[in-house]
Design goal:
This protein is mainly α and 134 residues long. It contains six helices and no strands.
Length: 134
């Protein structure tokens, strides 16, 4: 159990750091003087990157850290995103490294929930809510 908690903490750290790094890389287009994109496109790219970083951090620090399967599944966006970049742009470095890191983090911290153990707990919560209803 302690090893799984350590894996979740390590994976959380990796995912939060890569979310921040992705946001920083995305906003860097605003500071490049010879960028081929018009200024409006640069702002669009930067705001999208910051928004995705905020969503990534929020999902990682809430549902993922609690071991919720929906969050774990949603965060597979990161490895897929980096692999698409490898094929689209040929950027093994840094995208290949990021893809390996995020994949490893997600595999190490896979949620340990089973439907058999979750169902009785959900029924108890539901029963408790019904008991308090007027």
């Amino acid at each position: 159990m302690k090893s799984h908690r350590f894996a979740v903490r390590a994976a959380t750290s990796i995912l939060v750091l890569l979310s921040i790094l992705s946001g920083v890389i995305g906003t860097s287009v605003l500071f490049v003087t010879d960028d081929p994109f018009p200024r409006e496109a640069q702002v669009l790219i930067a705001t999208f990157a910051v928004g995705m970083a905020v969503f990534g951090i929020a999902i990682t620090l809430t549902g993922f850290r609690r071991g919720q399967q929906w969050a774990w599944l949603v965060l597979w966006y990161y490895p897929v995103f980096f692999v698409i970049h490898i094929f689209a742009f040929g950027t093994i470095i840094p995208d290949g490294i990021f893809a390996v890191l995020t994949t490893a983090a997600l595999l190490l911290a896979r949620p340990k929930t089973s439907t058999a153990s979750a169902a009785p707990a959900a029924m108890e919560r539901r029963k408790g809510l019904q008991d308090t209803a007027p």
